Prior knowledge:
Order of helices and strands: HHHHEHEHEHEEHEHEHEHEHEHEEEE
CATH topology of the largest domain: Rossmann fold
Number of domains: 3
Helix content: 40-55%
CATH class of the largest domain: Alpha Beta
Strand content: 15-25%
Amino acid sequence: MVNIRHIAKVTGYSVSTVSRALNNKSRISQSTREKIFAAAKELEYIPNSKAVSLSIGKSFSLGVIVPYATSNNYYDKIMSSIISESFENGYRVTFLPTDYDKERELDYLRMLSAKEYDGMIITSAANDYKEIEKFRKFGNIVSCEDTGEAAISSVVLERGKAYGPLLERLKEHGFETFGVTFSREPMSSVGAGEVFEAFSKSADGFSERYAFANCRTFDDGIRAAKYFGSLDRKVDCLFANNDEIAAGMLSYFASEGKKAPVVIGQDNLSISRALNIPTIDFHLHSLGSEAVKLCLSGRQEKKVLKSIFIDRGLFDGRSDGKGGEACISKRNV
């Protein structure tokens, strides 16, 4: 493989002069620069990306920590917007799956100190953010979940404030018992904990019995619906952690010939529009792009993306997706 020593030998210039020319450093004449670039082209010289990164202090690459290596609607949407925003800014993206392994996550974070990445985005962390904070001195770190008191920037979804008012309105109109699904255990992450707390505060009698964990796919939605349908106390309204799961729930009740409770999805995916499923739009398409912008800016900031409830006819007189102020009438359940 051709390196700068070969170019130095062909051109007669020193290795340091060739290096300064190829890295567009000052104190190199235009004629010298042109000769060196011509030789590099003729020799088909390909710069060592790591060496260039160390020379200019940038890798133009971002590391993105994700919890799963398999497809997941929630993270797929975040990753898609991360890719788009990074591309617009001339950055490459490397996805780093952890399966919530704490040591593997720490290994990824150590790559910041080796200048493998200019910054790191965490979609969901295995470690406590106070532990992650130790790595901030090596590069900007931005999380897509609440980082608490840690000095880690974040762009988060409005969760508790989204569920609380909606639950209160549903209760005012006769809904009494609520069930909710989670992608992991209810208290396994900051975001899941916020949702569980919101239901515990606003839904009378809510407990872990009305929470269904490890729900990520359409088939998981079927399993969740079967579970909720087996409870002694009738569930009036089910909140799914994404629209695909909501569709799976409705599919189960239809296949069993049973009246479905009101099912509310999440993320405003195409399937919710096709099946007319009420959904909470947390603007996942913005979460990833805003995280990239914040990471590249170098600022330390904590941002919250507000949600919109799209009623799909659940609210009387309003189904425009602008949320919040409409009256609710209880469906036949």
